[in-house]
Structure to design on (812 residues):
């Protein structure tokens, strides 16, 4: 298998470190808009760099990406950029006749009149409407294959297959107790993406009613996370699992709640109230005359790059799927989860916990595709494929998952 | 009297509208960095524009300001720019041999080791250290002559002269119930200045101890404001009165508390936590390549210009001085205040309440200087001069003050 990895940021760099230890692929081309980032990721692999090549590419340039896939005879494109680049990369992979994996789906667009009641363009809609093309081509577009979405969807499918006869609710619940020394406020994941997913209208699925939206930060609940993380305030946010799970798993309700904590929620609300989440440019006096800049980019520029904070970070991050339903006529409630301790991921891989946890899952998925354990064509979510091999291989990677009966 | 007004923003424009109705001066030159702003202020006066001329000047260019004062044979410079330009304008007026008035004093610089315990360079220090030069020249630099500082200092002197034998505390208390239609968050005054005064270490004066600083937003108290505004949460902020009052009024303690309200305090804390109050530039991708911009300028650019919000604004703003002490052997507590209703200031002057309330006071002061009722030389605060004529003339301007015995 020959892989084109696009994006050598925090997650992309962690992917190279995880993949370098696995023999399943022949070559990985690591491409980034900034060639120095791609080269740094490859150089950091040291003696393991043989199977890796650094390259430069503009992820928004479909033709350039298609040409790069052809030039390196790649079988698959792994997208590790931010969600703005999902569509051009998805399209380029189709044009080149390769498989495609991403960790976030094409962006949503709120309902023009009732943004907090009805869905408009949903996450992934632009990808699913082209499922036929992928099926006809006999190629697999495996979408939402990070940790959340990704592993969380695998958990949902595992619960449906192995643990329940009927499912009342699949609720993804994400929480952490990470702190960063020396910073009052230091998000552990891309603030651009966090603002995007937290301020968009949250989406909920209910059988019979379909998908609908709510006000931001709705239905707060305190969820008790395992392995010492403890209780964290969680709220509804827009996330891919809610769009993916109902397509392949029979559940009466699907939700995603993010353990943002009160403090982070207030920060996001304030950014929104002041218009600092905006992605359209404003004019300000710059050092070399008037400049047009996007306020959200300025917010990101004022905060430390989360991928560089691993050394100052402490604590654990937990991704997981809470499922409520019945088995053999009795009520059952479980939480299937995956915890990464920052100290472990820094020691083992030099990658901070949140970034590493996102990165390991697409590598596991690629290994299953390479071995043939996972195969298919069309646009598929992780819950469309058998969960057993995935969960076993994840454990083999040294990062086991857990289950708590509630 | 011939006046050079520098700054044709919200306050400067309101000054022209108030002054246009008063015959005490011969001519006012209205100068701004942006000539269109100066011209718009003069043009808006319509038939009353005869005594006004628009001009362009860079307030940071001392030589240009001195030349403009000479060219128009001005007797006085009235500074209506933001506090960054206090020193060049103060220096230019001295060089030209004119009097000088401002509404905010030269900026402070925190103590390098103990910013939240000790003062460093205090507000106005750079002006007071040149008091001798002004005295020798026989010219008056009347500093802090807006509403707060300004009218609040006049109130303090009035209390000392007429209402108290001994003063325990002079506490300036500022509060409002203003709302702006159509905006979740719309400060009624320059956000640049508000951030500056609220995030700098607040300064407090105590007889025997002198000036010292505290943590931001310290000593919260709920103060009940008059004329229907009601209770508002007030906290210590850095303000000129604390530096001015003790120089001329005998008081055991002097404080300034701003009725920011909890919501505004949280917004300011969040901006600080995220580094968005910074005035040093960060690099972001701009529309025409990388741009270096100051985060605080981007915050200001995202918010509506407060001077333009009068039409959508409702409510009243209150500036005042609470004084506690003894008179004839008995304890006494009063609040001397000045309230402006936005509906009134918009109807009468087309200026929003906060801006109008700031603007009226320097015009009253200039009229007292023109008539000889106020005279002096050196660098003086408003409390250095007799309060009676000022308070009477303010009432004659149609904007009476009030007093509440507590």
């Amino acid at each position: 298998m020959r892989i084109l990895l696009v994006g050598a940021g925090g997650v992309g760099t962690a992917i190279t470190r995880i993949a370098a230890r696995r023999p399943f692929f022949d070559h990985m081309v690591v491409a980034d808009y900034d060639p120095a980032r791609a080269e740094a990721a490859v150089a950091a692999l040291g003696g393991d760099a043989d199977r890796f090549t650094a390259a430069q590419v503009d992820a928004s340039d479909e033709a350039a990406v298609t040409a790069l896939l052809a030039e390196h005879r790649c079988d698959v494109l792994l997208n590790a950029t931010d969600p703005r680049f999902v569509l051009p990369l998805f399209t380029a992979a189709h044009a080149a006749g390769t498989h495609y994996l991403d960790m976030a789906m094409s962006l949503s667009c709120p309902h023009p009149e009732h943004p907090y009641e009805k869905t408009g363009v949903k996450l992934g809609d632009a990808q699913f409407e082209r499922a036929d093309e992928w099926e006809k081509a006999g190629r697999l577009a495996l979408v939402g294959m990070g940790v959340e979405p990704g592993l969380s969807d695998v958990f949902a499918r595992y619960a449906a297959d192995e643990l329940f006869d009927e499912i009342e609710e699949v609720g993804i619940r994400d929480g952490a107790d990470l702190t960063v020394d020396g910073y009052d406020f230091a998000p552990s994941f891309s603030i651009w993406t966090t603002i995007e997913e937290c301020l968009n209208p949250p989406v909920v699925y209910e059988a019979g009613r379909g998908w609908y939206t709510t006000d931001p930060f709705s239905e707060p609940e305190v969820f008790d996370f395992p392995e010492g993380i403890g209780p964290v305030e969680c709220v509804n946010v827009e996330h891919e699992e809610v769009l993916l799970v109902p397509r392949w798993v029979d559940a009466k309700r699907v939700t995603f709640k993010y353990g943002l904590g009160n403090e982070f929620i207030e920060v996001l609300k304030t950014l929104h109230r002041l218009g600092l989440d905006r992605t359209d440019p404003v004019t300000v006096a710059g050092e070399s005359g008037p400049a047009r800049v996007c306020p959200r980019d300025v917010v990101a520029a004022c905060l430390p790059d989360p991928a560089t904070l691993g050394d100052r970070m402490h604590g654990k991050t937990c991704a997981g799927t809470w499922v409520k339903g019945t088995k053999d006529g009795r009520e059952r409630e479980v939480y299937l989860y995956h915890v990464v301790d920052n100290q472990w991921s820094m020691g083992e891989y030099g990658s901070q916990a949140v970034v590493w946890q996102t990165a390991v899952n697409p590598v596991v998925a690629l290994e299953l595709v390479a071995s043939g354990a996972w195969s298919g064509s069309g646009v598929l979510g992780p819950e469309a494929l058998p969960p057993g091999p995935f969960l076993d291989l994840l454990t083999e990677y040294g990062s086991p998952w857990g289950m708590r009966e509630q």
Q: What stands out?
A: The CA atoms of residues 130 and 379 of chain A lie 8 Å apart.
